[in-house]
Every structure is written in structure tokens, then in C-alpha cells.
Design goal:
single chain; alpha/beta; Rossmann fold; seven-stranded mixed beta sheet; four-stranded parallel beta sheet; binds 6-O-phosphono-beta-D-fructofuranose
Length: 363
């Protein structure tokens, strides 16, 4: 297939390293192949509104490597296969995918690079099944995308969470308090687990291991008895008690296709206050984990993913997603990446290491 113009979009929640991918794609497409690159704004939304597309040149990507966010903008709402539209006060879902395919053709885009998490890769796969030559690049701070050892953005989020834990330690110790840090990750506990280990947490709560409050309280009491009169808990937003439910800020609705998690920190704090005579404070790290300058790891990984995506187009490897296996960048079919989420193994090595360090995992 002869390629002269490619398009690139960033979909879903943003994360640090997106600009490194965009820069990697633009530079290698121009330097190695002499292709034109079209930047599509606001994820797949930009393909419904072609005026949101603009040429990207070497000048457009100058200086963006250390910048967080995405110069193209993004959204985690506009799935063109189920586009939400208000009609007579009700939200209906409309399939606009044919319009997207037409617009891609009209824009002269020969191949598309879709950078995103599970949701965006699913949409990209749908477009590939409709005949659009598309390649995927895995992004998310949650690191829950299968078939890649790491997604870019995760490492930066971990740094932010570990830094927060370091800061909470000193104030927890001064005031003899229990400090709870609530972190993101949706249904996966990667951020909580790895930042908890790196930040010396005493208790780590993850969605993959339902927790028992009575046991957490016993562990904190035993710590106090040993002379450590403060404790640090990291709670993943998706963690939940044995026999209980996740704490949800906003349920999924017609308007919002996915539920918003949040509030587990306060939930655990109330329970601990009921059984221990200690001050408890909660910090919700929230979107700070999605912001800031990407770490060296995420800049390098994003850049490598970007150049690989261009190589995949040159080699005709469509319907596939770039991925990291060990130290090598390779590619996998998109279907395999979205089969299910990559979750923490409760019986795995990382959990075992945490427990060997004396960290309580809520069980
Ligand atoms: O998937 C990335 C993520 O940051 C999750 O960790 C979190 O639950 C969600 O997105 C938050 O989404 P929003 O930006 O819509 O609040």
C-alpha cells in the first residue's frame, strides 16, 4: 500500500508521554519516509469534525518532549460507534463510524495512528474491521492494558504517588497519625502496589485483594505496640472490602458510559476511626497523577512507541498495537490487547515481595 499521509490522534484520559509519542511519529514519518502528518484534535471526535485536523510539521513538535498532556487534546467520551446525542431530553447512542471512515478518506489519510488505552484501542479495532489501516499505541497511567509490560504514563504516575508518600511519611510521623493516600488505577492496583512498595507504605489496598478492616486495624495496633505510632495506607480507588462494593463517585449513566471511582480513602478512614483511637487523614492524589512532565522512562518509551508505529505502517502491520516485551518494542494484534484487563496477580511475585517486606495487603 502506498502511503503519503498519515493521521495521529490521542484518545481517552491524557497522561504524561503523549507528546513524546506524537513527536516520535511526526519526526520518523517525515525524516525516514517523507510522509505528511495530520494531527487530529480531541481524539476520535476530531474525525467527526474534520476542521479539527491540522498538519503537523517538525516545527509543530519542537520542544514538546518534556510537556505533559497532549498538544492534540483528547476526550474520553466520544466513541464514534456509540456517540452520545441528546434527543427530546434523553441521551441516545448513534453509530457515526461510517462518517468517520468517510472523513478519513476525504482528509487523504492513508493510515492512522491511534494512541490510547483500552477504550481507544477498541475503537481503533472497530475502524480496522471497517477497512481503515490503523495501528495502536498503548497509553494509560493505570498500566492495565494487556500484552504490553508497561504503558507510557504509568511510570510518571508512580513517581508522583511515591513522592506523595514520602511527603506524607514525615507529617504522619510527627503527628502519630494514620495517613491514607488514595490513588488512581481504576480496576487495577498497579499504581497503589508499586508506589506503596517504593514509598514504604504499611498497608496497600488493591482491587484484586478485597480487604478486611478488622485485620488492617490489628496490623496498625501491632505496629504501634512495636513503637511505630504512625501508619501509611495506600488505597487504590478501585479497592473494596470483603463482601462489599467499590466506592463510586458517579455511576455509569446514559450520559457517562463509565462509572467514576473515588472515595475509598474516606471509607477506610471512617472504619479505622471506629476501631482505633488514632487521628486519620486522607489525601486524594487525583489528577495530579495524570499531569506533569513525563519521566525519562516515559519519554523514551513514548518516543520508541511513536517510531515503531510509523515502522508498522511502513511494513503494513495494521490492526496491531505497538507494545513493550521485556526490553524490546514489538507489536501484537489489537484483539489480544483488549481481551481483558491486565490485573495484579494476588499470588504473584510483586504481592509476595510486598508481604515479605511486612506490608499488609488487607487480607
Ligand atoms: O484511566 C485513567 C484514569 O486516570 C483512571 O485512573 C481514573 O479512574 C480515570 O481515568 C479518571 O477519569 P476522568 O479524567 O474522567 O476523571
Amino acid at each position: 500500500m502506498a502511503v503519503s499521509t498519515i493521521g495521529i490522534l490521542t484518545g481517552g484520559g491524557d497522561c504524561p508521554g503523549l507528546n513524546a509519542v506524537i513527536r516520535g511519529v511526526v519526526k520518523s514519518a517525515i525524516i525516514c519516509h517523507g510522509w505528511n502528518v495530520i494531527g487530529i484534535e480531541d481524539g476520535f471526535d476530531g474525525l467527526l469534525n474534520p476542521e479539527k485536523c491540522r498538519p503537523l510539521t517538525l516545527d509543530s513538535v519542537r520542544g514538546i518532549l518534556p510537556r505533559g498532556g497532549t498538544i492534540l487534546g483528547t476526550t474520553n467520551r466520544g466513541n464514534p460507534f456509540e456517540y452520545p446525542l441528546e434527543q427530546d431530553g434523553k441521551i441516545i447512542r448513534v453509530d457515526y463510524s461510517d462518517r468517520v471512515v468517510d472523513n478519513i478518506r476525504q482528509l487523504g489519510i492513508d493510515a492512522l495512528v491511534a494512541v490510547g488505552g483500552e477504550g481507544s484501542v477498541k475503537i481503533a479495532l472497530g475502524l480496522w474491521q471497517k477497512g481503515v489501516p490503523v495501528v495502536g499505541v498503548p497509553k494509560t497511567i493505570d498500566n492495565d492494558l494487556r500484552e504490553t509490560d508497561f504503558t507510557f504514563g504509568y511510570n510518571t504516575a508512580l513517581e508522583t504517588a511515591t513522592d506523595a508518600l514520602d511527603k506524607l511519611h514525615t507529617t504522619a510521623e510527627s503527628h502519630h497519625r494514620v495517613m491514607i493516600l488514595e490513588v488512581m488505577g481504576r480496576y487495577a492496583g498497579w499504581i497503589a502496589l508499586e508506589s506503596g512498595i517504593a514509598g514504604g507504605a504499611d498497608v496497600i489496598l488493591i482491587p484484586e485483594i478485597p480487604f478486611d478492616i478488622a485485620r488492617i486495624c490489628t496490623a496498625i495496633k501491632e505496629r504501634s505496640a512495636r513503637g511505630s505510632r504512625f501508619s501509611i495506607i495506600v488505597a487504590a480507588e478501585g479497592a473494596f472490602p470483603m463482601g462489599g462494593d467499590r466506592v463510586v463517585l458517579q455511576s455509569a449513566s446514559e450520559k457517562q458510559a463509565i462509572e467514576r471511582l473515588g472515595g475509598i480513602g474516606q471509607f477506610v478512614a471512617k472504619k479505622i476511626e471506629q476501631c482505633l483511637d488514632m487521628d486519620v487523614r486522607v489525601t486524594v492524589l487525583g489528577h495530579l497523577q495524570r499531569g506533569g512532565s513525563p519521566t525519562t522512562f516515559d519519554r523514551a518509551l513514548g518516543s520508541r512507541f511513536g517510531t515503531r508505529a510509523v515502522q508498522m505502517i511502513a511494513d503494513g502491520e495494521f490492526g496491531r498495537m505497538a507494545c513493550l516485551k521485556g526490553r524490546s518494542i514489538t507489536s501484537v494484534p489489537m484483539e489480544d490487547a483488549i481481551r481483558d484487563l491486565k490485573l495484579v496477580d494476588p499470588q504473584g511475585e510483586i504481592v509476595a515481595a510486598a508481604e515479605d517486606l511486612g506490608i499488609m495487603l488487607g487480607r
